[in-house]
Specification:
CATH superfamily: endopeptidase domain like (from Nostoc punctiforme)
CATH topology: endopeptidase fold (from Nostoc punctiforme)
Number of helices: 13
Helix content: 25-40%
CATH class: Alpha Beta
Order of helices and strands: HHHEEEHEEEHEHHHEHEHEHEEHH
CATH architecture: Alpha-Beta Complex
Distance between the termini: 67 Å
Largest sheet: 8 strands, antiparallel
Shape: globular
Radius of gyration: 21 Å
Strand order of the largest sheet: 2-1-10-7-3-4-5-6
Length: about 375
């Protein structure tokens, strides 16, 4: 066996497990080469990561009525949370079937908005000035008695020649079983375009256009550049609706935050720092409706707890600190939640579950107040709610 070239050894020693925040909507469990500027941006948090658990639990009990025993436990399988009663857990593979009770009401042409549970998902939320929850999207199509998802999807080419990290994301449009799509994500919201706005046959026409697009060899666009013939997940959907079906779209673009740490991180990775069309841009179209909600969270309350917690973290980030206070690098070079952030997410879900059925606005307000308990600047004590 020939010796490994020394330049490759050095490169591998600098590799990390890290997702480009806007590069692919997926966590890639492989080594990626990133610039030193990226590592420096995520190196130091201004807050205490490892909080005194006894003190924290005392404050949570005192101000929010939470006890350690109320912490949420992960459930296996997929739950449908929009139905009454909620159903699940279901095995992913069961939901490929168009005849399964948990897929009742789905139609070809429905849009799938997806959120994963990985730390990189929080990074995507913190990227924009306005709160944005979902990070990927696809089009649902029924073929016979089975459902499939059509999406523009990235594949990482680690050793490919690239001037910027973002350009290592290649790939393109693909068709995957609905169950495989469900497996990737913590939560999927199913949207339906308005027939009044797009025509009574919009669903069938959109799914047919998606099927035909497999022959076009559409490449994935990591830069989300509207002038590039390659396409991100959200650009792919707009291409089908506008270019293939001849329907006009007015989609609001999300502006990237001016937070210096996020601007530095995105620039170091080679991503744009202006504005993007995101999956939730489609939910703002007139008369678009949510027709289903699937999640690996066991209840609608736990789903809301996680979503509201992300919203509270987004507000905290906008007004307080740097991206390194929320995400960091593990000693083995894995991107991770900071310990205090991970603790907050767990307790936020527990609080939402304990108050299931109560006023959502009240729960959201309490989770905004609760976040302050988990962000103690170094050298300061934990404070309760005012």
């Amino acid at each position: 066996m020939s010796p490994t070239p020394i330049f490759l050894v050095r490169a591998l020693l600098r590799s990390v497990l890290l997702l480009g925040l806007l590069g692919g909507c997926q966590t890639f469990p492989i080594s990626l080469f990133v610039p030193d500027e990226t590592l420096a941006t995520l190196e130091h948090s201004e807050y205490v990561e490892k909080l005194d658990q006894d003190e924290l639990e005392t404050l949570l009990a005192q101000h929010f009525g939470l006890l350690a025993a109320t912490r949420s436990q992960d459930d296996k399988g997929v739950h449908r949370l929009d139905s009454m009663p909620e159903s699940g857990p279901h095995r992913n593979e069961e939901l490929n079937s168009a005849f399964h009770p948990a897929t009742r009401g789905l139609r070809s042409g429905d849009l799938l908005l997806a959120k994963n549970s990985k730390p990189q998902s929080l990074g995507q939320t913190l990227t924009f000035e306005d709160f944005t929850y979902y990070s990927h999207m696809a089009i649902l199509a029924r073929e016979g008695g089975r459902y499939y998802a059509y999406e523009s999807w990235p594949r990482l080419h680690l050793m490919a020649a690239a001037d910027q990290f973002a350009e290592r994301f290649r790939g393109g449009v693909q068709r995957v079983p609905f169950a495989d799509f469900l497996e990737r994500y913590e939560t999927i919201e199913v949207l339906r375009l308005s027939r009044d706005s797009f025509g009574a046959d919009i669903g069938e026409r959109l799914s047919d256009a998606a099927k035909d697009s497999l022959q076009e060899n559409i490449r994935y666009d990591p830069h989300h550049d509207p002038n590039d013939p390659a396409m991100s997940c959200s650009e792919y959907v707009s291409y089908l609706i506008e270019d293939k079906l001849g329907r006009s779209l007015t989609l609001r673009r999300r502006t990237v935050t001016q937070n210096p740490s996020m601007q530095s991180l995105l620039s170091s990775l080679g991503f744009r720092t202006d504005a993007y069309v995101v999956p939730e841009s489609y939910s703002e179209l007139p008369d678009t409706e949510t027709v289903a909600l699937y999640s690996h969270q066991a209840t609608h309350a736990s789903y809301l707890g996680k979503r509201y917690a992300y919203q509270a973290l987004h507000e905290h980030f906008v007004s307080n600190s740097s991206i390194a206070s929320y995400l960091g690098i593990h000693p083995l070079k894995l991107v991770k939640y900071r310990r205090n952030v991970k603790d907050y997410l767990r307790w936020a879900v527990a609080y939402s579950e304990a108050h299931a059925g109560e006023d959502p606005d009240s729960i959201r307000r309490d989770l905004r107040a609760m976040v302050e308990l988990f962000f103690r600047r170094k050298g300061m004590k934990v404070h309760g709610r005012s």
